[in-house]
């Protein structure tokens, strides 16, 4: 028996490439240019899978006919048709505009103690936004008041979006697109007599954790308030021993 993956090998390979780009988006989430490059690559790769698949199936008429309704269904989804338009824009016109929203947080362990909106510009890395935030805390009592205390540490939270999917983080959009295309490929492999593909991506990182960048409590106190927490703890300990 022949391998059910072999006829559509190049489509599957492109889909695996999308998986890799999604991890690049995760890994570069707090760096605007690197994130945008990974997003561009993801969109270009995912949008081309259906065309590749049609090419792969040129000599497999019965399978092509069997999956055609599913292909049409995928292409008709708002998600996929929008990504397709974006792909054409990136390839033929230029830079994709992405929007960024953010907040500052005080974290107690893994718990969010305080979250307050703080503009994180789309061209700005989270580290740069954090430096700006610390500067505001040095000069403005309100901001310092909602900042970290002795029990909490600072963090920047951000999310990337495009206007066509307002309020939807691009990591979630990308994962949904990967899954939709995966369903089409899985149906095709099944038509060739193979097992369905695994569409869970267990190696995906928790998007909420990816969106959060945490910083040192000690460094914050030292650079904003001029207080060394280690020194304070040592003195307290000494005082207690005496
Ligand atoms: Zn993975």
Mind explaining what this structure looks like?
- The chain is of the alpha+beta class and 242 residues long.
- The chain is 59% helix and 12% strand.
- It has ten helices and four strands; from the N terminus they run ααααββααβααβαα.
- Strands 2-1-3-4 form a four-stranded antiparallel β-sheet.
- The protein is elongated, with a radius of gyration of 24 Å.
- It binds zinc ion.
- Residues 19, 23, 203 line the site of zinc ion (ZN).
Q: Would you summarize the structure shown here?
A:
The protein has 242 residues and is of the alpha+beta class. 59% of the residues lie in helices and 12% in strands. The chain has ten helices and four strands, in the order ααααββααβααβαα.
Listing every helix as H and every strand as E from the N terminus to the C terminus, the arrangement reads: HHHHEEHHEHHEHH
Helicity, in percent?
55-70%
Bound chemical compounds: zinc ion
Q: Tell me the span between the first and last alpha carbons.
A: 81 Å
């Amino acid at each position: 028996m022949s391998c059910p993956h072999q006829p559509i090998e190049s489509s599957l390979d492109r889909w695996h490439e999308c998986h890799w780009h999604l991890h690049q988006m995760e890994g570069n989430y707090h760096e605007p240019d690197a994130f945008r490059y990974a997003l561009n690559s993801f969109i270009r790769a995912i949008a081309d899978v259906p065309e590749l698949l049609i090419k792969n199936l040129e000599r497999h008429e019965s399978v092509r006919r069997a999956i055609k309704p599913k292909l049409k269904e995928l292409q008709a989804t708002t998600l996929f048709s929008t990504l397709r338009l974006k792909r054409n824009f990136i390839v033929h016109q230029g830079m994709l505009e992405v929007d960024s929203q953010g907040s500052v947080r005080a974290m107690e362990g893994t718990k969010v103690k305080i979250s307050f909106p703080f503009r994180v510009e789309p061209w700005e890395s989270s580290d740069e936004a954090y430096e700006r935030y610390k500067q505001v805390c040095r000069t403005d009592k309100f901001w310092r008041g909602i900042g970290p205390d002795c029990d909490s540490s600072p963090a920047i939270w951000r999310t990337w979006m495009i206007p066509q999917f307002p309020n939807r983080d691009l990591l979630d959009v990308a994962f949904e697109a990967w899954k939709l295309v995966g369903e089409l490929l899985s149906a095709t492999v099944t038509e060739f007599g193979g097992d369905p593909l695994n569409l869970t991506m267990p190696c995906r990182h928790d998007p909420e954790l990816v969106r959060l960048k945490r910083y040192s409590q000690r460094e914050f106190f030292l650079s904003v308030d001029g207080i060394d927490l280690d020194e304070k703890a040592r003195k307290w300990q000494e005082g207690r021993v005496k």
